[in-house]
Amino acid sequence: MNTKMLKKAALCVALGACLGALAPTVMAQSATGAIAGRANAGDQITITNTATGLTRTVTASRDGNYRLGQLPVGDYRLQLQRDGRSEGEPLSVNVALGGTTTVNLGGGGEAITLDSIQVVGSRIVNRVDVYSTETVTTVSREELARMPVAQDMGSVALLAPGVVGGNSSFGGISFGGSSVAENSVFINGLNVTDFYRRQSFSSAPFAFFQEFQVKTGGYSVEFGRSTGGVINAVTRSGSNEFKSGVEFTFEPNAWRSKADDHQFDRVDGDGTAASAVYKASHDTSSFMKANVWASGPLVKDRLFFFGMYEQRQGTYGNTNNAGTEWSRAKSDNGFWGAKLDWNITDDHRLELLAFSDEGSTDNSTSLYDFDTRAIGDLKGTSVDDGGGKNGSLTYIGQFGDNFTAKAMYGVNRSRALSASPADALCSQVLIDASYNSVYTAMGQPAVSCHPSTSTSVVDHHDERKVGRLDFEWVLGDHLLRFGLDREEMTTDRTTRYPGSTGMRYSVFAATPGAELDNGALVPGGVDAIVMGRRRIDGGVFETTANAYYLEDVWSVTPNLVLNLGVRVDGFDNKTASGASFIKMDKLVSPRLGFSWDMKGDGSTKLSGNLGRYYLPVTNIINYNFAGGLIDERTFYALDGWRAATNPVTGSGYMEPVLGAQIGPVDDSYNLPVDDLRQSVSRDLDAVYQDEAILGFQQMINQAWSWGVNATYRRMPNAMDDIRINHTPCGPVGYSLWPIANPGEKVTIWGNEDIGCDTEGWITIDTSKAGYIKGGSGEVVGYFKPKRTYKALEFQIDRAWDDKWAFNASYLWSKSEGNHEGPVNSDTNYGDTGMVQHWDHPANNQDYGPLFNDHRHQIKLRGSYKLNEMWSFGGTFTALSGGPITALGVAWPDDSTGAASFVTEGSGGGSFWHCVKNCDGSWDQREFEYAGRGWGGRMPWTYNLGANVTWTLPVEGIDLKARLSVYNLLNEQEVINQRARYEKGPGVTRGLYGTGTRWQSPRYAQLVVTWNF
């Protein structure tokens, strides 16, 4: 389009759109957007997709409103017809994912103002979206190609303010103070979120996607089942033009900096030496992939395809922390994906999506001499399989000018399989940090013939089936949106520890007279013990989730839109036999949003949102509670070590000699399956979060805009397994672990097994009762759960104009409470909904800064085009450190530990430190209180990325090479530290506060693309 035509088109678009048009967003879960605005009554507005020829026409209503919804993302030409004649030149309009592009047409087809638009190539882009009530960051594949962003959806999400990496021990990302297990991910409207733990999702290559939305709050009622954030991605599609290309990505190990080694030598409070070693400087990682894609018409203007195949090869090597073993992993997997788009007519479309992220990794473990880098005898091999096949079929129909319908059916599959030839023959043996000094003196030999020290034998398959209907109906100043969906989520999983005994053995240093978790005392003369843990579970489990919603997007005045919505959810978690054991329905989520175009010209917006969001129960709860769980611990004296021969490889190793058993088998963690009335509270309420957002955004000029945003979130309840050792019938004699709402009333079945004279339902108000202290016999309750998040965000943005772009944000936030959510990052415990928050009343006594509380976040990103050959990009993140908590193991007037006196990770811990008479009787101990963050803050972390792109300066040849460097300054600051302050009352852990995880070292990536 020439300059004159472009100016003419620009004059036909008002970013200063009066808010007389309808919806702020459309079908945010789908891969569509909308065009809306005002014209004269009876005007006909026709839009045509420039890539596919899809044409839609709508007639402006009596009040001048018009709307074209459910449009595929892309570029369109818009033509106004008035009184049967075309008015002005066609304008170029871009439709973004999940948004509404405003086009208001004056009496002669001219625009109201030109000051509020930004001309970019052949498109006109609204810089202030006066229709949106969401907090959202949208990034296209073209923008990502200009910046150093790692090629995964999580890295895209981290560009948005308020999104940070979670505990690196189990990964994931945190949105707005939430835990890593509260987010949702959609690909073309298909929910691909892991429903077993909610900490991961199905993936596809970057080159498969067209655009990403990162929703950090305020999303409307078609969204649910998330109290964190949402990643919404749309894949590429075909057009009327045949296109194809290849892309190569290289990440050689030679371009990767060495990780730092760390060694901590400390002394515990009882004089015992404690050491921890983290050797990583020999670790290697080489990765490359190549993809080929093609797209085009099968039938011009009607049927289009996009297809991609990608081959990925990775070779990885790493030592264990001690540097005594060398593990190799090799993967050679292919991804395939396809998209078909069929425009049956201009008003009816079908979309078919299919892709597979199945993959397999071969692993091997050998002995290793760290000083000489010599790889020794092979210990064993194993194979891990993951991923699955996914697909969806979507129909979109336009019925008249005012009614749109969408129907989708989809399937999302994933698997997690792990197997080794040593599984039937070899048990796993772990060396606790308390035994490190002895183990080091032994020369740190291999202590097991199993190649893995911690992985269970797993056979896991997940399948989600989704059915969804969505409708839009325009009635004057109202846009009515309504719909329903159903998800059936099935987990087929069995796990066990390898070895003939089915036990995993852990070796600890011990002090005679110390109390073990089973209540027994370490015998005299015993300075080391072995704990054997047997854990077996499995079955097929189904959960269904149903929802329906209704929303009225009401144009109250030309400048004010109200978004009034309600969503009703229902969750049904079932046992292996198909019976319901957790069923919650009629979960009502009201949502209210507004957007006010303050000046009436689209340059200044004030918006707000109030809403409630419910979180479903994960399938790991079905698996652990509704299928039965054997989780037993047996303690033995260590009677030394003896040489043994690996039955798989023939190499030698040392195995522990089990001495006399100490005390009874601790079976308190077993969960029976025959009767769940004591396993799940009858009064169970779903977990929800309330949210309030107020935002302001303003144009500075055609390129620049700025905004400020305030967010408040509160999660006033929790659902987890909670220790109950006292009921209205009296002391139980052991601990029950029902899934319940801590701090609320819990109703379970009472019988003689737990001390009741007669059978029947009993209710415990866990804010006042439920736990009886050992020794004193005092009955107490649990502290009411609470989590709040407060944030103030400032952002300034400069749009890309084919020369440069820039975005900067600063976020101040405070995340406080007495529980993080369904996982516990303080103790690295990631079994969603079954963490140690409520294992003891002392675990959650303190309200303070939570693990994901980073008070200050600074994020910068930008790109600059020097000329047609060279361009540059950069990203920078500065993040203040999270709190350091110091967990004790006991609290006043209780002989029962608030955390394990044996293992560092078992039990949640307390916020009390014993300071006097700690060796004496429990009633003589004196304590000092140490709340969350008592240990201060971890240091700030900084991450700078940079890239340079070379483009072949030959017309007609699209060849580019992009070199990106991540963590350019090679910062390797600590990002996770040990939080256990005591190992016994008054006995400090010398390793408290030492690091366990650090930033990944610098690495480089070369991407070569050739499109033709």
Can you describe what's shown?
With 1012 residues, the protein is mainly beta. It has a domain at 31-126: Immunoglobulin-like (Sandwich), CATH 2.60.40.10. It is 3% helix and 52% strand. It has a 29-stranded mixed sheet that branches. The chain has a five-stranded mixed sheet with strand order 10-15-16-13-14. It is globular. It is found in: Cell outer membrane. Belongs to the TonB-dependent receptor family. One of its GO terms (biological process) is siderophore transmembrane transport. This is Energy transducer TonB. Keywords: Cell outer membrane, Membrane, Signal, Transmembrane, Transmembrane beta strand, Transport.
Helices, strands, pairings?
Elements: H1 3-11, E1 32-38, E2 44-49, E3 55-59, E4 65-72, E5 74-82, E6 85-95, E7 100-102, E8 117-120, E9 123-126, E10 135-140, H2 141-144, H3 153-157, E11 163-165, E12 173-175, E13 184-187, E14 190-191, E15 209-217, E16 230-235, E17 243-251, E18 262-267, E19 273-278, E20 284-299, E21 303-319, E22 325-345, E23 348-356, E24 359-369, E25 374-386, E26 389-399, E27 403-419, E28 429-431, H4 436-441, E29 457-475, E30 478-496, E31 503-509, E32 528-557, E33 560-574, E34 580-597, E35 604-615, H5 619-625, E36 629-645, E37 652-661, E38 687-699, E39 704-715, E40 720-721, E41 724-727, E42 730-736, E43 739-740, E44 745-750, E45 760-765, E46 771-772, E47 779-780, E48 787-798, E49 804-817, E50 848-849, E51 856-865, E52 870-879, E53 912-916, E54 926-929, E55 941-951, E56 958-966, E57 974-977, E58 982-984, E59 987-988, E60 995-998, E61 1003-1011
